[in-house]
Specification:
This protein has eleven helices and eleven strands. By secondary structure, the chain is α+β, with helices and mostly antiparallel strands. The protein has four domains: 7-85, Orthogonal Bundle (Arc Repressor Mutant, subunit A); 90-141, no CATH class; 153-239, Roll (SH3 type barrels); 254-331, Alpha-Beta Plaits (2-Layer Sandwich). The chain has a five-stranded antiparallel sheet with strand order 6-5-4-3-7, covered by helices on one side. It is extended and about 85 Å long.
């Protein structure tokens, strides 16, 4: 079933209007959808949408919608029905609504393609679930990666509220290896997930630069204050443009040239290391790329993860740092 860009939004509006009124005319649905979505929609498209809500087995809504020929209007035969609660709990619907708002922020950037892949994975999971319910053999023939969820997510409601209402947060923070428990007040600017961990970015009191805090056992007693602040506009897509992880040092980005074995190169070509990746050589003798990033802990960990299939060609400072880390690792086995 082909799905148009605004189809899901039209479904939601149709459902809402059928819940609000006992009878809804097609012309009314057309007017509301065009106003709210700022698009043009035909009567035929609306009739197709309603047909899909009624009968499409893949969507599975089986919406109890009927047409009153005398009144020339649509209505729900079961007023307790709603696609908003179909297969989802209230909190799950809220979570999806929040996700939709986040996707909207990225709709004009290249990174949105990555979110689209995630959405498609969820849709694939729904299809698999449908097949699994109809077969006793399918579940044993499909294995889905069980990636660990981000930790310490209990902090998220407070931080999200602070971001929405532009309110400051008070919390205590204890660095690893330190006995000192520091009290902090931060104006939150961004909530970011990376490698199974949530991070809060913002400006501490009397500090103009952005500070990053991992939301783990180093953070405690996080509370929302009645103190408001004016958030400076920061384009965090640009902020992380030359970062390979969560760390963004003040140093300028540098070009790093990496040489891979031909086999490893196939993987690097299919899933680039970084958005700035450029292919410099691709042959039977090797695969070479350049990336433009800031040197960070995450960068070195990424390079080391490729083992003996990669060599840092330049610059010398990165090459020497990798050599040092490899030497220290080798000493553990001597």
């Amino acid at each position: 079933m082909a799905k148009s860009k605004y189809q899901e939004a039209r479904f939601r509006i149709i459902n809402r209007e059928l819940k609000r009124k006992s009878r809804v005319k097609t012309i009314h649905l057309k007017k509301i959808i065009e106003q709210e979505l700022d698009i043009k929609v035909s009567t035929k498209t609306l009739q197709t949408d309603i047909g899909l809500l009624q009968h499409d087995t893949l969507l599975g809504y089986e919406a109890p919608i009927e047409y009153d020929r005398k009144d020339k209007s649509w209505y729900y035969t079961d007023q307790n029905y709603s696609i908003e609660t179909f297969g989802l709990k209230e909190q799950e619907v809220k979570a999806l609504t929040l996700a939709a708002k986040i996707f909207e922020l990225y709709k004009d950037s290249g990174i949105f393609a990555n979110y689209s892949n995630a959405i498609n994975k969820v849709l694939d999971a729904v299809k698999i679930q449908k097949l699994s319910s109809e077969s006793t053999e399918i579940p044993s023939l499909i294995q889905v990666e069980k990636k660990q969820s981000a930790t310490w997510s209990e902090f998220l409601p407070v931080i999200i509220a602070a971001l929405e209402e532009k309110r400051k947060i008070r919390f205590t923070y204890q660095k690893y290896g330190s006995d000192t428990l520091n009290k902090r007040i931060i104006a939150p600017y961004l909530l970011k997930e990376y490698e199974g961990r949530w991070y809060m970015l913002g400006k501490l009191e009397n500090k103009e630069t952005i500070t990053t805090f991992a939301l783990d056992d180093r953070v405690a007693k996080l509370e929302l204050l009645e103190e408001f602040f004016e958030r400076e506009k920061i384009n965090f897509l640009d902020y992380f443009k030359y970062s390979l992880g969560i760390t963004v040092p003040e140093e300028a980005q540098i070009e790093i040239i990496l040489s891979f074995t031909p086999r490893q190169g196939l993987y690097i070509k299919s899933i680039p290391i970084h958005s700035t990746q450029k292919i410099l050589a691709d042959s039977e003798s090797g695969f070479k790329v350049s990336i433009l990033v800031k040197p960070t802990y995450e960068l070195y960990e990424k390079i080391l993860s490729y083992g003996n299939t990669v060599e840092v060609v330049s610059p010398t400072i990165i090459r020497e740092e990798i050599k040092l880390r490899l030497k220290q690792t080798l000493e553990k086995y001597i």
